Amino acid sequence: MTDNLEMGKGAEFDRIRKVWQVLGSRGAAGGDDCAIVEFGAELLAISVDCSVEGTHFQCGWLSHLEMGWRAGAAAISDLAAVAAVPRGILVGLGVSEELPDEFVSDIMDGVGAVADSVGAKVWGGDLYRSNTISIGVTVVGGFDASPVRRQGASPGDSIWVTGLLGGSASAVSAFLEGRQPEESCRTRFAKPEPRVAPARWLGNRGATAMIDLSDGVLSDLGHLVAASGVAGVVDSERVPRLPGADLLDSELTGGEDYELLFTMPGDDDTLIEEFENRFGLCLTRIGRISDGTGVTILRGGESYTPAHGFRHF
Question: What's the rounded mean pLDDT across residues 152-163?
Answer without folding.
Answer: 98
